[in-house]
Amino acid sequence: MFSYRLLLVLVPLILSYQTYLSQSKADSLLSIINSLNSDTLKVKKIITLSDKLIEQNNTELAKKFLDDGFKLSEKITDKTYQAKILRGYAIYYRQIKYFNKSVESCNKALDLSKTNELLQGNYYHLLASIYENMSKNDLAIENYYKSIRIREKINDFRGLGGSYNNLGNVYNSLQKTDLAIESFEKSLEYRKKSNDLVGEAATLNNLGLSYKEKAEYNKAITYFESSLELKKKTNDTKRLGSGYNNLGTIYYRQNDFEKARNYYAIAVYYDNKAGLTDKKVTATLGIARCFIQQGNKDSSNYFIKAAETNINEQSPLETQDLLYSTKSEYDSLTNNFVGYIQNVRKSLSILKQTFNESTAKNMADLKVTFDIETQEKKIELLKKSRQLQETELKNKELQLTKKQQALEILNKEQAFNQLLMKQKNYEITQSELKNASQLKDIELLNKEKLIHLKEAEQQAKLLKQQRYIIYLFVFLGIFLMVVVFIIYKNSLQRKKFTAIILAQKNEVEQQKNIVEEKQKEIIQSIFYAKRIQDSLLPNRSYIERNLKKNG
Hints:
Elements: H1 4-15, H2 23-34, H3 39-55, H4 59-73, H5 79-95, H6 99-112, H7 117-133, H8 137-153, H9 157-173, H10 177-193, H11 197-213, H12 217-233, H13 237-253, H14 257-274, H15 277-293, H16 297-308, H17 317-333, H18 337-381, H19 386-536, H20 540-550
Helix pairs in contact: 3-4, 3-5, 4-5, 5-6, 5-7, 6-7, 7-8, 7-9, 8-9, 9-10, 9-11, 10-11, 11-12, 12-13, 13-14, 13-15, 14-15, 15-16, 15-17, 16-17, 17-18, 18-19
């Protein structure tokens, strides 16, 4: 028995093959899957494998895996896996163009996943894409919006990018380019948030296509170039060719045939490298049309023949139509009017075939019913006379034709009126959403206004406080200046008084010195007089002796 780890190695290896799996390989892989103990794990691997097989267009083997997976999913209590198998059926039926069964499977998947909002968003997106394939654009738009509302609720940014991108494609098919651009811009916003570079490149390319339809070529070129940069960054070589082809178409419309031819040539290189034959034919015919516009007969003929070698009856009708349109342009250049008429007729025949194929599937059941009724009526009328039978048959056929025509007209009018009603309802919804958005904007503006008023009041209070502080500092400054002035003035007076005192002191000292000098002179004169007296008068002992004698 194979282990789980071995399965993890084997399954990716098998899924990586680009060729179809043979029946024996499928049986072998089923036996490996069935060897697992867990039914849940088995179903998971079957879902992954069936998705890959459908992607490789190996629908028969995909159906076999889905049938086995559905039986296993019924055993599991979790209905999520049964819903995922039904989703696989929906994709399978869409691939083989059984759209009614595809819608039925998708609706069953939605019923089983009511509690899982992520899956609900995915399945509404799938249902919308099925209606888009059926050209039921009103139902496609309705379900894309259902998917968007759910995905917005759960912040599924990657899913929102895909839904808005597909919604833009639907609006483009309805030639509502402005609504398409609005949807693509929202898709771009969400794809940037989810870092979905591959999806971002696709949306940028779609924006370029929208602006191309509006003939705003400079914007279209900017978006195409941005898309190409991301495709190179993600190594998405399969889609590089279409990007260069789009640039070629833009420059072709602007009559810059040299640039257009160069871009078409790059597109041929990448489409050839990716094995995209039909896209390579389209780019090759683009080169031929450039040479036709430049009047280069030999080169245009060469590239037309190169395109013819890669085209056959299985090629898409659009590609065949482009070939005959290009050949008719070449015939016009070479004055080959017979060839021109033949190729125009072939182109018109393909356009008619395209129209017939788009309506044939829907008319098939009605035609069978109508043929049966006609045969029954013919059998009943055979009992009558041949002339009466032929007359009545013609009348009934004529009446039936008229009734069918009237019924078709009524059905078309009813469908058109329903579409108008839905469009009006959608426009009313959009208007209400815009009004609600404007009311929110007004509320926000009022809130911002109140905030600004509060901020202004706070600033006024701060300014008032600052003014008081300034006044205080000014007052203190003036007070300090007065104090300093008083101190300075007192200092000057003190210096003045000090100078006067010093002057008086000096004068006193001078007077003192004079007095002292005078005193010294007086003392000296006294001493001098005394010395004279001492020299003239007898000494004391002599006086005392004489006094004693005379006494």
